[in-house]
Amino acid sequence: xxxxxxxxxxxxxxxxxxxxxxxxxxxxxxxxxxxxxxxxxxxxxxxxxxxxxxxxxxxxxxxxxxxxxxxxxxxxxxxxxxxxxxxxxxxxxxxxxxxxxxxxxxxxxxxxxxxxxxxxxxxxxxxxxxxxxxxxxxxxxxxxxxxxxxxxxxxxxxxxxxxxxxxxxxxxxxxxxxxxxxxxxxxxxxxxxxxxxxxxxxxxxxxxxxxxxxxxxxxxxxxxxxxxxxxxxxxxxxxxxxxxxxxxxxxxxxxxxxxxxxxxxxxxxxxxxxxxxxxxxxxxxxxxxxxxxxxxxxxxxxxxxxxxxxxxxxxxxxxxxxxxxxxxxxxxxxxxxxxxxxxxxxxxxxxxxxxxxxxxxxxxxxxxxxxxxxxxxxxxxxxxxxxxxxxxxxxxxxxxxxxxxxx
Amino acid sequence: xxxxxxxxxxxxxxxxxxxxxxxxxxxxxxxxxxxxxxxxxxxxxxxxxxxxxxxxxxxxxxxxxxxxxxxxxxxxxxxxxxxxxxxxxxxxxxxxxxxxxxxxxx
Amino acid sequence: xxxxxxxxxxxxxxxxxxxxxxxxxxxxxxxxxxxxxxxxxxxxxxxxxxxxxxxxxxxxxxxxxxxxxxxxxxxxxxxxxxxxxxxxxxxxxxxxxxxxxxxxxxxxxxxxxxxxxxxxxxxxxxxxxxxxxxxxxxxxxxxxxxxxxxxxxxxxxxxxxxxxx
Lengths: 407, 106, 165
Prior knowledge:
The complex is a heterotrimer.
Chain A: H1 3-38, H2 54-64, H3 75-91, H4 113-122, H5 124-134, H6 138-169, H7 174-180, E1 184-185, E2 189-193, H8 200-216, H9 241-265, H10 278-285, H11 290-323, H12 329-357, H13 359-393, H14 398-406
Antiparallel strand pairs in A: 1-2
Chain B: H1 6-26, H2 30-53, H3 58-93
Chain C: H1 2-23, H2 27-47, H3 51-75, H4 92-113, H5 127-136, H6 139-160
């Protein structure tokens, strides 16, 4: 590796890390304002214009808090757990291409890009597990076990959704996945790109991935392990000051990283929603002042589109948090194992039908599966109803006569 | 790849295998014994991959990688069943010390 | 030169964590050191151009199997100081003698076996080639391993289920 290659690599790392760490205050501010707006109140607006300095105040408060170390806790593991929670969240963003320039993005364009993300996100289970255990506190232990059980359960659904994306694009390399999505829509429509969400398997896969994203990052409605009204803040109970800040940061970094993966795999990455650039055609046709303008917007546009999609996903996260009720733990596990994994498997099977036989059998397959599911779940409700009807008919009338005799 | 000789990888794998074997013999906690078995399996994987790099044909090289994937899969199944057994023994006896769980020996 | 340095670094950490797994009295620390060991081995797999196997090692071994180990250790509460057991003091020298003997036997074979270097092919480690081989030449073992994993999952659930009286 030559010196210039090393320099470019360090620049790439600096850009990604700078973006992740620098957008953290913005996300915190945005979440609090947006949730307040959903709940018909104002949110933080005292510190700075529109309350923009609120995250800085939070950081300063957390910095100056006293750090309480629980007695008889395993000191080394207790100190290590927040770092273990923050590290995979930051590192997993290494293979996400946020632009077409291969000198600047991604940090590492490896053959196994998407599997690298899966590997780093499966390490997320360690931070919560060790935090819960090393605090030497029953509530933390239970919270940690629950949180990591949730994380590993939804990893399977995430893997199946990503398997759909991998199969549809034919490569594990993230830049290849984006390049495949630049083709014309469904092969025929020329000026719209073939983002994976515009295909039925991509749509189901993206929905599946979105739900699993919420569960992986312990975001509502899957935030049982860390909800304040539940297990006394769960695995984070014994953490204060900077270690709590590290958990907090880790959660938001994971949110950003995983949104980046979703935009790259399903939403077309840095591609614009329209495959036609009027400035480019003007520059080619007319020339003159349009040429540098086209070059400039051509260079600036892809990161802008990536950021826009990222922002839309972050808004979706916040929207879901403000809207949906928290799931109970057994409902959560039921959803992960008995709903999302079958949906992912059926989706993958129908994608292989498309790859083998074409789009018409695949769409027919989707229709068939939908019809079958409607009949099955309708039948389930009707069967329950029939049982209730039977019970009602079994109510004994003679009991009322007995009461009359007593009275 | 040509800078580091094959024998270095093989020696490392032999070392890890020997340490894993010592751990299986020394430790009393069956979970840690399991972990040492995993260590031995990983040493074997390293050996497989080292030899796979220096095979003459592509098919033989890929066979090495495929075999390592099978070893990882089988190890996963073995860990699941083994830890299930350990959990049951702990529920029955309140201890999992291999010195105490010795009914079949006497 | 850089490759040798990287190899020595990874090998050193792998050896020290392996010794730590055996020497530590706390099973949680043993498990965490083993995770680090798996990471170092994955790095070594990457240097052997086995990138697919390496990343699968991190996903499956370090990310799933060791989490399962830690779950069981924590559920059985084996990490607390009163639950830690002492090793068999008596048999320890014999175990180490056996291990050293095993190591010497294996190393003696290493320098016999190593001969001619053939050209390493980078594409042997890619997912495409491995996947093709898995589904054509090795499809029967693949199906057997799939059945094995299913049986393992069902078996471990059945084993560890509480019998409701």
